[in-house]
Specification:
Blueprint lengths: L3 H14 L6 H10 L13 H9 L6 E3 L11 H4 L10 E3 L4 E8 L2 E10 L4 E3 L15 E2 L7 E4 H4 L5 E2 L10 E2 L3 H5 L3 H5 L14 H9 L5 E3 L20 E3 L23 H5 L3 H4 L4 H4 L21 H4 L4 H5 L3 E2 L7 E3 L6 E3 L30 H5 L2 E3 L6 E3 L8 H7 L13 H9 L7 E2 L8
C-alpha cells in the first residue's frame, strides 16, 4: 500500500480517538497530499495559541532587521561590525548571540561576524556550527576581501524555517511556525478543521520526541547525506530516515565527551536518548512548551524571552521535576545538623530550596530568609559550554553529578558551577554523602 507510514499513523490516531477505521483511507490520502499554507492561516481560528507562539523564540528565529529589538548593535557597536550592517536584511538570535543575513539573489548568505549580546562585542562566526562541509559550498563575498559567505539556504535554513525543500533550498515561511510541529495544513484549512492536524501532545514516546529532534539533534539523513532531516513530517518515525549520532563511551569525539555529554548546541535529543527519561516515555513537551498562554498580539519589536524557563518550561524548573519526582517526605526531608546547625536537604546535602508554590517545610524557621538556589537542574542538568557558540546551555542527560568524568574526559560537572575546588575534591565530597533516593511516581499524561 502506498504511503504505509501515513496509513499506520492514521490508523493509530483513529483507534486512539475511537473513530471508525473506514475513515483511514481518506485521512491517509489527505495527509500525504497536504501542503504548507503559512502560520497566518492559523490565526483566525487559533488566536490565543497563535499569539502565544508568535512571542516566542521559535517564531522569531529569523526576523527582519527592523524587528531586531533592543539587543541589536547600535551606535558605535554598529560601526565596529566586520561588515556593513546596512547589508543585513534579517537577524538571528537575541539573548546570547546575533548573526546577520544578506539577500543574495534567490537565497540568503550568512554575513561574516556575530555580535555577542552580553559583552557587546563582535567575533568571527564559525561555520563549523552548522556543517563541516559548509566552506566548500560558500559563496564569494562582495566587497569583503578574501572572506566567504555561507549559503544559508543550503546549510542552515532547515531548522530556522518551515516547509523546507532540501533539493532547492527554498521554504514556505521564515521561522519555526505552526506547521513545523503540526504538519502542513492545506487540507485542514480546506475542510475547515474536519481533517485534523498532528497534535504533538497526542503522540506517545518517540513519535512525540522526534518532532523536537528534527532540529534539536545531530545526525545524518540517510537518503541525502545531509546533516539534517530532508523528508520528515510530524507524526512519522524520524529514525527510519535519519541516523542519530551516538557517543563512544570512554572516548572523546568532536560531538561528545567520553561520558556521552555533548559539546555542541542543538544536540539535546542526542543526550536525551541516553537518559532514563526516554526509556520511560517522557517526551520533550512533558516539560517544555512553545506557546505562551497570552491572547494579545505581540509587538514586532518584542524583547524575546523565549530561551528562558519562563516561556519554554511549562512551569518553574523545580515544579517541572516534582511533577514526577517526589522526595522521601513532604518538604524535601529537611534536617538540621546539631541543635543549632544549618538546615540541610537530605537529598542534595545542601541548604533547602524554598518553593514559593510548594508545600511548607516543617523544620524551616518562621521568617527565615535562607533560600539557596539548589534546584534539581543545578545538579542533574549542569551547564555545558558549547565550544563554537561561546555560551552555555544545560545538559539533557539527567544524570547525577559526576566530577570523576571531569577528571577522565574533561566533561563539565555541576559541582564546579559553585565550588572553586577541583574535581578531585568534589569526588571525595560525594563519596562521603549518604545515599538518598528520590521516589518517582507515575503521572497521567493529561496532568503533565
Amino acid at each position: 500500500m502506498a504511503n504505509d507510514k501515513y496509513t499506520e499513523r492514521c490508523v493509530g490516531r483513529l483507534l486512539l480517538l475511537g473513530l471508525p477505521l473506514a475513515a483511514f483511507c481518506v485521512a491517509t490520502a489527505a495527509e500525504a497530499q497536504a501542503t504548507y499554507v503559512g502560520s497566518a492561516a492559523c490565526k483566525d481560528c487559533h488566536t490565543s495559541r497563535y499569539n502565544g507562539w508568535r512571542e516566542g523564540v521559535h517564531a522569531q528565529f529569523v526576523r527582519p532587521m527592523a524587528a531586531a529589538g533592543k539587543s541589536a548593535p547600535a551606535g558605535n557597536e554598529a560601526t565596529r561590525a566586520p561588515f556593513a550592517l546596512s547589508k543585513a536584511k534579517y537577524v538571528l538570535g537575541n539573548m546570547h548571540k546575533m548573526v546577520f543575513l544578506q539577500q543574495a539573489g534567490d537565497h540568503l548568505v550568512l554575513l561574516p561576524g556575530e555580535f555577542d549580546v552580553g559583552d557587546r562585542s563582535w567575533n568571527p562566526i564559525s561555520v563549523q556550527l552548522w556543517d563541516p562541509q559548509a566552506v566548500s559550498a560558500a559563496l564569494p563575498a562582495e566587497g569583503e576581501g578574501s572572506s566567504k559567505l555561507v549559503n544559508w539556504n543550503q546549510r542552515c535554513a532547515r531548522c530556522h524555517t518551515t516547509g523546507y525543500d532540501a533539493a532547492t533550498g527554498s521554504y514556505s515561511e521564515l521561522g519555526v511556525s505552526c506547521e513545523s510541529c503540526h504538519g502542513p495544513g492545506s487540507v485542514h484549512l480546506k475542510t475547515q478543521g474536519k481533517e485534523r492536524m498532528i497534535n504533538p501532545e497526542a503522540l506517545n514516546g518517540e513519535l512525540g520526541n522526534h518532532i523536537c529532534a528534527q532540529c534539536h539533534s545531530y545526525g545524518t539523513d540517510r537518503a541525502t547525506g545531509k546533516p539534517f532531516p530532508t523528508a520528515y513530517r510530524p507524526g512519522t518515525d524520524l529514525s527510519e530516515t535519519f541516523t542519530f549520532e551516538k557517543p563512544t563511551l570512554g572516548t572523546n569525539t568532536a560531538l561528545f565527551f567520553g561520558n556521552g555529554m555533548t559539546r555542541r548546541h542543538h544536540a539535546q535529543y542526542n543526550e536525551l536518548a541516553q537518559s532514563k527519561h526516554i526509556q520511560n516515555g517522557v517526551r520533550c513537551f512533558d516539560c517544555h512548551q512553545v506557546h505562551r498562554a497570552k491572547n494579545v498580539a505581540p509587538s514586532e519589536n518584542t524583547q524575546l524571552i523565549g530561551l528562558t524557563e519562563r516561556v519554554l518550561l511549562k512551569r518553574s524548573a523545580q515544579h517541572v521535576c516534582t511533577t514526577c519526582h517526589l522526595p522521601d517526605s513532604p518538604g524535601f526531608a529537611i534536617t538540621r545538623t546539631g541543635a543549632a546547625g544549618p538546615l540541610r536537604d537530605k537529598h542534595t546535602q545542601h541548604p533547602p530550596v524554598i518553593l514559593k508554590r510548594g508545600p511548607p517545610i516543617p523544620s524551616q524557621p518562621k521568617g527565615s530568609t535562607e533560600q539557596a538556589r539548589m534546584l534539581c537542574s543545578e545538579c542533574h542538568m549542569p551547564l555545558v559550554m558549547r565550544e563554537e557558540a561561546g555560551y552555555a546551555i544545560r545538559s539533557h542527560q539527567f544524570k547525577p553529578p559526576a566530577p570523576a568524568d571531569t577528571i577522565a574526559h574533561g566533561a563539565p560537572n555541576a559541582c564546579a558551577e559553585c565550588h572553586i575546588e577541583d574535581a578531585a575534591w568534589a569526588v571525595r565530597q560525594l563519596q562521603g554523602w549518604p545515599s538518598q533516593k528520590v521516589k518517582t511516581v507515575p503521572v497521567p499524561r493529561k496532568q503533565r
